[in-house]
Amino acid sequence: xxxxxxxxxxxxxxxxxxxxxxxxxxxxxxxxxxxxxxxxxxxxxxxxxxxxxxxxxxxxxxxxxxxxxxxxxxxxxxxxxxxxxxxxxxxxxxxxxxxxxxxxxxxxxxxxxxxxxxxxxxxxxxxxx
Length: 129
Ligand code: SF4
Fold this sequence. Notes:
Blueprint: E1 12-16, H1 22-36, E2 41-42, H2 45-49, H3 53-61, E3 64-69, H4 75-82, E4 89-92, H5 108-125
Parallel strand pairs: 1-2, 1-3, 3-4
Helix pairs in contact: 1-5
C-alpha cells in the first residue's frame, strides 16, 4: 500500500454504518467520540451510498478511510467498496463480544472499547505509537 503522510486529522475520514441496532448505534457513537477527540472527520456514509458528488470528491481527497460496522453484514464496508473506495482501517462492533439486539441501551464502556481500538490503529498509522 502507498505510504502517505497523515499529519492532518481532517485527512482521516471516519464512516460508520449507524445501523438501527445497538451495535449500529455503538458504531455511530464511537465515530462521534473519535471525531470529538480530533482523530479524524466523521463523514456521511449515506452521502456515499447516494452518490452525492461533493461527498464522493471529498472522500477521494481523504488520505485514510476508517469504517466501523455494527455487525458482519458490513454495510459501511460494502457501501464504500461498491463506490470504489479502499478502506484502510476497519472494525465490526460484534468483534468485541457485544451481541446485536434491537434495543438501544448502549453502554458507554462498549463505545469506548471500539473507539479506543480505532484510535490505536489510527495512531499507529500516524506514527504516534
Ligand atoms: S452493519 Fe449490521 S448494524 Fe450496521 S447497518 Fe448493516 S446490518 Fe445494521
